[in-house]
Amino acid sequence: MQKQTKAIRIQAERSQNREHSVPLYLTSSFTFEDAEQGRAIFADEMAGNIYSRYMNPNVDEFVEKMNMLENAEDGIAFSTGMAAIFASMAGLLKAGDHVVASNALFGSCIQILTKITAKWGIECTFVPGADINAWKAAIKPNTKFLFCESPSNPGLELIDLPALAALKEGKDIILTVDNCFATPILQTPLDLGADLVIHSATKYIDGQGRVLGGVICGKKVYIDEIRFFARHTGPSLSPFNAWVLSKSLELLDLRLQKHSENAMALAEVLEGHKALNNVKYPYLKSHPQYELAKRQMKYGGGILTIDVKGGFEKVVAMSKLLKIASISPNLGDTRTIITHPASTTHSKLPAEEKASLGITDGLVRVAVGLESIEDLKADFLQALNQIS
């Protein structure tokens, strides 16, 4: 059975009401038939629901679907993507451990690694993500964790995941990949050698900008440790949000195909425009890692970046002229969204770090939606023509 079919047909066990669509389990706790059953479930001698901070049928259904899509042994859901990222580190690392991470990470990830885990005696070395030799050189005897995004946010840098995974062979090192931009439709990092894969389900997994959520999928031995941390600290996903996210997965494949098709078409029409310094998209031949993108990803994804000549002043002018695109820090919506990373999502980074990551004052991240591509092309072209 194909994954698209499974994403639609996997469902929590039907109740006596014989519902076709899974109901919402909006309950904080569950009952036991007697005290002995309660004891047995708490002792892990019997499977069963206890408390929605631990497990819930809606959350379990969502996680089961994500595990299937990512080819994972186990998984756990969280209230947000950042909660998932933090739990992967707090649940697996201890004082004295060392992390090697790509320098092209979402701003909050960098803040965790430089301002939070650092307080606990966990050291982090940042490296250029595409430079496998830099990763190799940064690994120390106490390195326990490799962390990266591919494609990265917002620069769309790709990392050769099999080559990175080869660096941990024979070592007690966990490779964790943020797969938010690609989703399991475009790539499955676990099949390329990763141990854990993380998603901000708020983005493409939801797909309509409605709810927050996060998920980690991967090897059971690591998920078990993360689950212990999560059970006792409480970053649980709400049943309602899990219900929404599980239903969203039924159309994830179809949505990602269309997002990618629209993004490719928009990138092609904008490339070379006189108002832009450049256009970056993984499936454009001009992308420095085009061959890797074609080898590692099924499609190019729904994100492209444009670098507007004239910097922030021209970006503001363009944003006022666009009639369709929304201005928001989110992405992965049915609606096209533009974001100016230098002043929003990555505004806390020092100027030199922004420069090293290619986050210029003119850089705009375009999360291409599902609108008519002809309408999108016309809208962006009219705005860019007026500012050029």
From TrEMBL:
InterPro entries: Cys/Met-Metab_PyrdxlP-dep_enz, Cys_met_metab_PP, O-succ-hSer_sulfhydrylase, PyrdxlP-dep_Trfase, PyrdxlP-dep_Trfase_major, PyrdxlP-dep_Trfase_small. Pfam families: Cys_Met_Meta_PP. The keyword Translocase does not apply. One of its GO terms (molecular function) is transaminase activity. Its EC number is 2.5.1.-. Its cofactor is pyridoxal 5'-phosphate. The keyword Transferase applies. It catalyses: O-succinyl-L-homoserine + hydrogen sulfide = L-homocysteine + succinate. The modification N6-(pyridoxal phosphate)lysine is found at residue 203. Pathway: Amino-acid biosynthesis; L-methionine biosynthesis via de novo pathway; L-homocysteine from O-succinyl-L-homoserine: step 1/1. Keywords: Amino-acid biosynthesis, Aminotransferase, Methionine biosynthesis, Pyridoxal phosphate, Transferase. PROSITE patterns: CYS_MET_METAB_PP (PS00868). Catalyzes the formation of L-homocysteine from O-succinyl-L-homoserine (OSHS) and hydrogen sulfide. PANTHER family: CYSTATHIONINE GAMMA-LYASE, TRANS-SULFURATION ENZYME FAMILY MEMBER. Homotetramer. Belongs to the trans-sulfuration enzymes family. MetZ subfamily. HAMAP family: MetZ. This is O-succinylhomoserine sulfhydrylase. It comes from Aquirufa novilacunae. The lineage of its organism: Bacteria, Pseudomonadati, Bacteroidota, Cytophagia, Cytophagales. The gene is metZ.
